[in-house]
TrEMBL record:
Entry protein name: HTH cro/C1-type domain-containing protein
Source organism: Diploscapter pachys
GO cellular component terms, A-Z: nucleus
Family matches, as InterPro entries: Cro/C1-type_HTH (IPR001387), Lambda_DNA-bd_dom_sf (IPR010982), RelE/ParE_toxin (IPR007712), RelE/ParE_toxin_dom_sf (IPR035093), TA_system_RelE_toxin (IPR052747)
Gene Ontology molecular function, alphabetical: DNA binding
Keywords: Toxin-antitoxin system
One family name in Pfam for this protein: ParE_toxin
Length: 177
């Protein structure tokens, strides 16, 4: 069987970025195995659950759906009780109650550039779209060095994100990770 595609919900990318930096690559690398669904170890089919499957990675659970392609929708941290068995799941209550829209996906490569290469969301999208800083700067009508500063900013202003998203041809919410 060939390799399937992997996409991440924006929520899952945000959750991944909040996890300890040392654990992020482990979770990302484990998620790469999901491209080989259904032949993946440590995957459990969920019954009566919002999502279809889960992959165990240490104390974390990657929750995802699979329909020929993998959509990672949530990452949860499991805290064990005194008996060593799972006792708590750590996630925001709003995330527990709600689910994300189906079209709210981030390509796996973009997440990889952020986790593995340490790029900001803007830099990761630019690299994914195979553009140079100079090309994006030209689209914005600014110098390459000015664009490089904007790309390096961990949380650029909303107006800046809107302009860059338009220049990259992606929805602005794709930069809000």
């Amino acid at each position: 069987m060939g390799m399937g595609t992997i996409s991440w919900s924006r929520k899952a990318v945000k959750q991944l970025r909040k996890i300890n930096k040392a654990d992020q690559p482990k979770i990302y690398d484990a998620a790469q195995a999901l491209a080989h669904m259904p032949n993946v170890q440590n995957v459990k089919t969920l019954v009566n659950h919002q999502y279809g499957y889960r992959l165990r990675v240490g104390n974390y659970r990657i929750l995802f759906d699979w329909d020929g392609g993998v959509k990672i929708v949530n990452i949860e941290e499991i805290i064990n009780g005194a008996d060593g068995r799972p006792a708590f799941v750590v996630l925001p209550y709003a995330d527990y109650i709600s689910s994300r829209p189906k079209d709210d996906l981030v390509p796996n490569a973009v997440v990889g550039y952020m986790v593995k290469d340490g790029l900001t969301p803007i830099g990761a999208w630019r690299k994914h779209l195979d553009l140079t800083q100079a090309q994006v700067a030209e689209r914005l009508g600014i110098s390459q060095s000015a664009y490089a500063q904007q790309e390096a900013a961990e949380r650029p202003r909303k107006a800046t994100r809107e302009k860059i998203a338009a220049a990259l041809g992606i929805p602005v919410q794709s930069l809000d990770l």
